[in-house]
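Q: What does the assembled structure look like for these inputs?
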Amino acid sequence: MTTALNPKFTFETFVVGAANRLAVTAGRTVAESPGSAYNPLFVYSGSGLGKTHILMAIGAQSKVLAPALNVEYLTLDEFVEAFHAAIAAGQGDAFRRRFQTVDVLLVDDVQFLTNRKEMQAELLRLVEALQSAGRQIVLTSDRPPAEIENLDERLISRFSGGLVVDMASPDYETRVAILRRKAEERNATFPPGVLETVASAEFANVRALMGALNRMIAYQAVNEAPLNAEGAKRLLGLEEPGAEAPPAAPAAAAPAAEPDEFSQFLSDVTVTVGKAVEAWRARVAEAVIRWEGEGYRTLRLGALLKQETPIAVDEAIASFERDVERLRALEAEVAQFDPPVAGDAAFRDPERVAEAEALAERVRAGAAPPPAPSAAFPLSAVAAGASNEEALSAIRQVIAHPGKKYNPVVLVGPGGLGKTHLLNALGLELAQRPGAIVACLSTQTFVDELIAAIDGNRVEWWRARYRRATALLLDDVHLLAGKDRTQEELFNLFNLFLDQERQLAFTAPAAPANLAGLEERIASRLAGGLVVELREPDREVRRAVLARLLPAQQLPAEAALIAYLADRPADSVRALTALVQRVAAAAAEQETPVTAAFARQILEGGSQSERRRTTGFRTSGLVVSSAGGIRSREKMIWDWPQPEDRVIEDLR
Amino acid sequence: MSLVNFTTREITCKIVYYGPGRSGKTTNLHYIYGRVPDSRRGRMVSLATQTDRTLFFDFLPIDLGQISGFATRFQLYTVPGQVYYNATRRLVLQGADGVVFVADSQARQLDENLESLQNLQANLLEHGVDIRTVPCVMQYNKQDLPRELILQPPELDDALNFRGVPSFPGDALHGTGVFETLKSITELVLRKLAQGAPV
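A:
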């Protein structure tokens, strides 16, 4: 029932002239900050002057700036139809609820409210509700509110309470600009002067102008010959009978005599003067129209036009365009970091390039990229084994096809199994892609950053920072529990990343469905990706980890030592690290070289309390492994003469 | 004279129709006069004898209005064709921005055409102007006459147009070629101006 926004109708494709500049400026403002500037915005103009275009442009632009916004465009007729359908289905309340959650409501052709009392009442209620909720309403009509017949006084005052702007017929320059742009869009070229001739005719609206252009393009396509100014006039029936002078000379018998030779002569001379005498002026004027249309200030070019004799015009235009290019680049850069700052007028005024540079510099300085993965966790350092084979293979797939294969990836398992390592390793690999910006951080940091951003009124900036990222990797996602605002933000990021096939990865201690305090929409999205479980490190993994750990601790990587340590019960890599550290500390204290025997002495000959620490927490006499097995310390032979003969692994 | 005045934003073109007596210069102007809307033309000044011969000169000011911001005016002059009015011709020719040479296509008038062309060159030289630097077009008038009486445009080109300027067959009485000629000389004049103007 709601019409989709036409992607062709954006501010970029809107040709701005004196007649509609106010409306476009107001529209841009509304799109940039819906609900706060002009609410409601009421645009009226004759038919075919761009009401629908501007309405859809507002919708499209606000969507670009804030994709999460609920933007709804519909004509009044569609609105009425929806209302009637809802009433008929006994769903009047649902209808109201539906529209009350719209962030930007765009209603076209409200003049059809005439004589629709019940619809007026409904709209009044809706406008009140939306306005009080700070949501934006934009309305268009072919006449100002007060002139819509039989319109409720309260609606008139509501409509007029925001900003009422009108758009007039485009002036000559704008008509030329419109024709040029449209011809360019269609890849049609016309000899010089043709479009100008057509534009010089009074067209009631842009649609008529487009119709004329269409006919000219069709004519040229059929005839394969360029249409000249005279031909265009004939084709479009623009010849003015009044221009024909009464023949004073006896020319009646001349069949070759054109009826308005003078007009033709005049337009030819116009072209010649434009081309020859004041080519520079035409170039400047063209540049003014073009850049004004794109929303840049053209003071400098305007000053050129006031000169009597042209001085270095081309250099001036080129320098102006260079400045505009620079501004554009700056604006685009700033928009990535901090969208609201990109709206600064300095980015639209080539006279203020220095100011814009300074502004960009400030933003740049404040715009640190999102936290990157830690270089301490390279993928090469991940010890592979049966217990993490599944996770590793998933990670490799993700690295090969980020965003496409498994999105999101959720690494699940208890602490100390290397989830963080894997996540960072994934991040490091992804960051090697050209142009990649990988955000890899703990959920706690994520929450803290958001709080700081809210505090500093920089949420937009914070959001933009993550929107820019090509991958988002969050460690310990269960810490989101109860953080509603962060979940909301993550949800939006989630959707954005999924839409644009950018990689997401998370770690959590348990499967998403079992995480308490996580909103259903987040949990279901997590579960919708690939959830891989990491298990306790197997012996292979432990050996590999030790082979890396020992040299790092300045300990000899002796086979016997590794074999001994690898066989010590350790349910996580972290526990294994603790073992090694204990041995290293003791060795340093006693200044003895580390051997398997020494390690055994330290780990088994030490005090009870120390020993216990290595294997999870205990309940008196029993050691409870976090993997669930319960072993009685007393009944276990720790000091096995030949460690290889131990069968604990197999028993488990 | 100042053709384009950037200060007052005016373009003024002085175009002189030159040629032997009875070749149709005044007829050209008459035809143009008839096609220009009242509001655009000044009074056509024509000093003629009882037999419609130009005694002094014709003057037709045309106001083209604002073109690209310039008040554009054309001043069309004719010179008396008869040999003995040379002083007048020279006077009219002074400050001309462009010259339309109206030739009589009749075969028996060829000598007069040549003579007038030489006279044009001489008179321009009197003003210190080389004919090669002045925008000039040819009109071979009276092409409506019976074929046996006239020379065809290629023949006239061979005989008269040794500089290879644009040439147009014409029938000024009925208007054929009149505006083409005017348009061509206008273009040449404006283009020459563009070459000289700073850009």
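Chain A touches chain B through 38 residues (CB under 8 Å).
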